[in-house]
Structure formats: structure tokens, C-alpha cells
Design brief:
With 381 residues, the protein is α/β, with parallel strands linked by helices. It has twelve helices and eight strands. Helices cover 44% and strands 15% of the residues. α9 packs across α10.
Length: 381
């Protein structure tokens, strides 16, 4: 089995992007905005803040400081709100600062030092926000091997035990990014759990991307079974993009998962050569490989649902955009053929959807939340 470099390995050093700095330009900015603008707003960035980015950022190297300035402004506002005792407002503004720093370091793989500073700042801001959110986010850490898996648990109003959905990020997503989707589930009476797995967020500093992400999901489920507010018989999972791949793997290999949403999922790395340069650089970065060629070889061996997807035995909802220019529709077509043993299967292809249908976020996200809430009321398997 291909091995993932750990923090401190030569191949995993933060500055070891061995093929040099990529060329970045206005076209890079426009490409990021074209593909991800709906994601930014759907994940909680205020449209006025996005307008500031659109109007002010001309070159990719301006991206980080522009977003960071927005984050710093929200942090100052939050500190002022805390001084006047307005803790709910302070929590929201601290989270707004956190998501701003998240998108500061978003896809900024060509500048590891700045990216890592953004990751740490985002984490610091979310940790401050967590106890002030409504409902609050409870931080936990689960030991696994030589690492500690960090995550947050949020509970809906009322008395448990509650059904729960585990939310997984993808290539550049982390646990702090899911706040708005969490709120949709919490309104539907479903608890939420987010965590960083190998190569993501805080975990990147401990363990790079590796083939067995499902072990980390299962370790978190072990911890959740000990929480009296959670019904361990009603646990679902949702993953976005590469997280959709992780969600399918987790559902296939841990029977405790009773419903699975794969949101714009990857099947394998067969489309590597057609991916944007920032995406390929991102995969090199999170896997800790010394070159793009090494990353391609490692990931082709490490990332595949072949022989795994067919083991899924819970209801599955797959969402994909027909105009996704990152993950071709062929990935979903193959996944559809292989999850034939799922007791229920819903494949939704949005004709006008881009990657993860971010351009349709007001429509597709509530539908996924509704499906999960219904699936976990009385699981069929």
C-alpha cells in the first residue's frame, strides 16, 4: 500500500513543492471566482465582502491579503462586541473572521508559509467563536496512532439522543467551513460533527493525505458512541468533492453509517491531467509529495473507489453538476454502477450545475439536508 509522509518527513516538509512557484495572474483570480463564487456565499461569506474581493483583487498574490483584511475587520468588531457583552454577535463575527481567513488561504498552495499562517489563524478564530455560537460547538480530540483527530460537535435544541450527520471536507475544505450546512441540519433536529482528516486543516500538520481516511471517520464514530446526546443507530455522513469520495469509503467500510451523501464526488484520479494547475498543486501539497509527478503516482495508487463502492449497504444520495469542469460526469456514472447494493439510491445530475453545483447552492443544499433528515428518522438498515 502507498504510504503517506508524516509531518517532518522530507517529502512532507511545507516548502517541498519541488517544481517551483507556479505562475499566477489575473486569469487565476477570475477562474477562482467563476468556479467558486457560489461556494463562498453558500458557505457564509457576505455578498458585500465578496464584492470587495471582486472589485479589489487583480492578481493572485493579492488574494490572501484582501481576504485577511476582511477577517481582521471582523475580529476587531467581535472584540468590541465582547467588551459590551454582546456574545452572540461576537460569536458570529468571530466565525465570519474565520471563514474570511479560510478563503484567504484557499487554493494558495503556491505560498505554503502564508497558507499555513492562514490555517492557524482560521483555527484560532473558530476556537474563539465555538462556545459563542448558537448552538455552541464543542471541541473534541480523538487519539489515533500518533495523531489526535480534532473536531466539533453541535447539538440541536431539545432533548436527545439525536440523529447525527458527520460532515467531511475535501481537498481544501476543513471542519470550520461547514457552519452554514450544520445550521441547516440543526434546524431539522439533526446533530452535526465535523473533523479534519489526513491532509486537512489542523491534521495536515500531523498527517498528510493517505489511503485510509475511513479509519479516521471510524475513530470519530467510536468517540460519538460514548456521547449520551447522540443516537448511534442514526448516523449519516456527507462529503463534498474529495470529501464525497471519503464519504463513500467511510460508508462502505463502517456499517454504523446509515445514510450517505456524496456531493460532487471524486471516484479516482483518472482525470488528473485535465485538472487545473492549482488543483494539482493542492493535491501535491496535501499529500506531502516532492513533485507533481510523484503526487500523481502516489495518488493514482492511493485514491480509488474500485472494489470499495460496491460494499455500500446504506441509502445513498449523489449530487453532481453536468458542467463540472473538475470532476467529469464519468466519475458519477461509474459510482452509480457500483453502489448497486445500496437499499436506496438517488443520483441527481443538475444540467446547469458546476463543480458541486455551487452555482445552485440555494436549491441543492436544502434538498440534501432534507434527504438526510428523512433518512435518519427511521433508518432502513
Amino acid at each position: 500500500m502507498a504510504r503517506s509522509p508524516r509531518c517532518g518527513d522530507a517529502a512532507g516538509r511545507p516548502g517541498a513543492l519541488g517544481e517551483g512557484r507556479i505562475r499566477v495572474s489575473r486569469e487565476t483570480v477570475q477562474s477562482a471566482l467563476r468556479v467558486h463564487a457560489g461556494r463562498f456565499v453558500g458557505d457564509g461569506v457576505h455578498p458585500v465582502d465578496l464584492d470587495t474581493i471582486i472589485a479589489g483583487v487583480r492578481r493572485w498574490d493579492e488574494w490572501f491579503p484582501a481576504w485577511a483584511a476582511i477577517g481582521d475587520r471582523y475580529q476587531r468588531l467581535a472584540d468590541e462586541a465582547l467588551q459590551t457583552g454582546d456574545t452572540t454577535t461576537a460569536g458570529e463575527w468571530l466565525w465570519q473572521a474565520s471563514i474570511s481567513y479560510h478563503y484567504a488561504q484557499f487554493l494558495f498552495f503556491h505560498d505554503p508559509e502564508r497558507r499555513e499562517s492562514g490555517q492557524r489563524k482560521k483555527q484560532e478564530l473558530y476556537d474563539r467563536a465555538a462556545p459563542l455560537l448558537v448552538p455552541p460547538a464543542r471541541r473534541f480530540g480523538v487519539p489515533l496512532d500518533e495523531a489526535v483527530v480534532p473536531g466539533f460537535l453541535r447539538l440541536p435544541p431539545g432533548r436527545g439522543p439525536f440523529p447525527l450527520v458527520v460532515l467531511l471536507g475535501g481537498l481544501e475544505s476543513t471542519k470550520e467551513e461547514s457552519y452554514h450546512f450544520e445550521n441547516m441540519l440543526l434546524k431539522r433536529g439533526v446533530a452535526t460533527c465535523t473533523f479534519d482528516g489526513p491532509g486537512q486543516g489542523e491534521m495536515w500538520f500531523q498527517v498528510r493525505l493517505r489511503p485510509d481516511f475511513e479509519r479516521y471517520t471510524s475513530a470519530v464514530l467510536d468517540w460519538l458512541e460514548g456521547q449520551p446526546e447522540i443516537d448511534p443507530g442514526r448516523v449519516g455522513i456527507l462529503g463534498r468533492s474529495l470529501g464525497g469520495y471519503y464519504a463513500i469509503r467511510s460508508a462502505a467500510l463502517d456499517p454504523r453509517i446509515k445514510a450517505c451523501v456524496a456531493w460532487g464526488p471524486l471516484y479516482d484520479m483518472s482525470s488528473w491531467d485535465h485538472m487545473a494547475v492549482l488543483t494539482r498543486l493542492g493535491f501535491q501539497y496535501v499529500s506531502g509529495q516532492p513533485s507533481e509527478a510523484a503526487a500523481k503516482a502516489y495518488l493514482h495508487a492511493a485514491v480509488t473507489l474500485a472494489g470499495v463502492a460496491e460494499r455500500v449497504r446504506c441509502p445513498v444520495y449523489v449530487l453532481h453538476g453536468a458542467k463540472d469542469d473538475l470532476i467529469p460526469l464519468s466519475h458519477v456514472e461509474r459510482l452509480d454502477r457500483e453502489i448497486r447494493h445500496a437499499p436506496q439510491k438517488r443520483i441527481v445530475i443538475e444540467p446547469d450545475g458546476n463543480h458541486c453545483c455551487h452555482n445552485l447552492y440555494p436549491i441543492v443544499r436544502p434538498r440534501m439536508a432534507d434527504w438526510l433528515a428523512r433518512a435518519l428518522v427511521s433508518p432502513c438498515c
